[in-house]
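Hey, quick one: can you model this chain's 3D structure?
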Amino acid sequence: MAAKTHKVTLVPGDGIGPEVTTAVVKIVEAAGAATGAAFDWHTFDAGADAFAKTGEYIPKALYNSIEQNRVALKGPVTTPIGGGFASINVTLRKKFDLFANFRPIKNLPGLKTNYPGVDLIIFRENTEDLYAGLEVMVVPGVAQSLKIITEKGSTRIAKAAFDYAKKHGRKKIHSIHKANIMKLTDGLFLDCARKVATGFPEVEYKEHIVDNTCMQLVMNPYQYDILLTENLYGDILSDLCSAFVGGLGLVPGANLGAECAIFEAVHGSAPDIAGKDLANPTALLQSAVLMLHHLDEPATAERIQAGIEAVYAEGKTLTKDVGGTSGTKAFADAVIAAMESAA
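Sure thing. Here's the predicted structure for all 343 residues.
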């Protein structure tokens, strides 16, 4: 059959990024060859590597590519702490108005954790809140950061969460907030969520204060289905929840807007193990699965997911971070072999 070709902007990133990206591309192309999907990868650097080559942390050509292709797959890019250039992730989200950060948290078969059977989703507002980056030094020794919450931003992330719940049969949404203290900003977020909730009577709507949510998650994550959050709370809770299923090396992420989407692993660039064939590509690979669903390639997505789950269930070709002894390349080859054996 004639393959359908998708143009995808690819940002390998730095640290372990190029290694996990190479592995993921290999698996995606192998799956696509079997299902009639082909990919035209447009590859660009970002961050310090891009600056060294082009004098820009995000080259104009990368912006143009994402705008034209409308979909990107991005490996981890190092963000300097307390100085240096602005976060590449945050900059791209704001540039393309990728207002919804979508992170499913679900256990993989065969991988033992303290919380088996977790299946929850985080819908995080992705462009506002303290991450708007509006910081000023008021006077020497006093810095200020502005928390920005808008009716538009709050309403559209709530609508995205409820639409997803209705489409996929999810039964419950919790809005996460600190409106007992931040009565105007978090209060506005809750007001918008409540209004949206009235249009979805089939979805149970609840609210939890963010600090209580952290305790409740550790005590009993099974009480949650979808968490609807502002930007900062969602970032923190996403990392907390990743521990339920084995850590950040496993959890996928999607940044969704009306025009474009960027899919990325949520972990860092791990420069200490870069170039050693030790990195786990699962997070970026499962992000690619989300990307394939977005591209309306469900057969390719499901083929890869089945391959991932088969490798984890067998447990013989896993990377060190999840108790195995295999490397990045061997894991990728095992996923491909599992896909082929299931055909």
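One thing worth noting: The mean pLDDT is 94.
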